[in-house]
Specification:
alpha/beta; Rossmann fold; 248 residues; 5-stranded parallel beta sheet
């Protein structure tokens, strides 16, 4: 795997909630070990403060909702030839059925792409995504899932090489040019994906899926792991959007 890609993932970890909390906590413990109690209290207090904030359901829901409300759901009426389903996580554990080997986000992305394909005559689905830490690319796994649900193999375009959204966009541009196509990805990811695809001269029609947002139901909520995960997902996208803007 390319050194630059690994370095990007490493740096990204330390500017997102998990990494920030972990780093501040380790610094606090180090200061405590060095008997610098004032600094230890500061770092430990900030780390626990961030942990509470990012795990607080109303705050996590706010972060998620600001992303997911930017594009409406797809209307299934647009006449397009190509539907690009962006890759996401998977595993290749042979003891699990295919439905479990495909990650939660991937299942919803795939189902949305298949539904659009079924509603759009003569359309083709583009699957992209590399193997990650497994021995089988995400694109291959998603295509296998689509075929299991009745999509004909001749209606699938598969590229197992792209490692990130930009590489996926570059491949799609080589296929569709400036022709309009449907872009299927998670609702949290769609703002950044749309920005990136458009910056390369593409004309995507958004089809968000895999929503995390919930209707507001009060502030009296206890921190939760699921909310911390939502904050992690949201902040990953905000940082990605900021980075794209800085580069452009």
């Amino acid at each position: 795997m390319e050194l630059g890609f690994i370095l990007k993932k490493f740096i990204t970890f330390f500017v997102e909630p998990y990494g920030i909390i972990f780093l501040l906590f380790i610094l606090g413990l180090y200061m405590l070990f060095m008997k610098k109690y004032k600094f230890a209290k500061i770092f430990l207090s900030i780390s626990f403060g961030f942990l509470f904030l990012f795990a607080y359901p109303p705050f996590a829901n706010y972060l998620i909702t600001k992303l997911e409300n930017q594009y409406p759901k797809y209307n299934y009426k647009t006449d397009v030839k190509y539907i690009h389903v962006l890759g996401s996580g998977h595993n290749t554990d042979p003891s699990q059925p295919l439905s479990s080997q495909i990650g939660d986000a991937s299942v919803k992305r795939n189902l949305e792409g298949i539904l659009i394909h079924k509603a759009t005559k003569d359309s083709k689905i583009i699957f992209t995504g590399y193997e990650g830490s497994t021995d089988t690319p995400t694109a291959i796994m998603n295509a296998k899932f689509a075929k299991a649900l009745g999509v004909n193999e001749e209606n699938l375009l598969i590229n197992p090489k792209p490692k990130d959204t930009k590489e996926e966009a570059i491949f799609t541009k080589s296929v569709v040019g400036d022709e309009a196509f449907v872009l299927v990805t998670s609702a949290t990811h769609i703002p950044r994906a749309m920005m990136l695809f458009k910056s390369l001269g593409l004309n995507p029609i958004p089809a968000p899926t895999n929503f995390y947002k919930k209707e507001f139901d009060g502030f009296l909520k206890a921190p939760s792991i699921s909310s911390l995960q939502k904050s992690q997902i949201a902040m990953h996208e905000y940082i990605g959007i900021l980075w794209n803007k800085l580069k452009s």
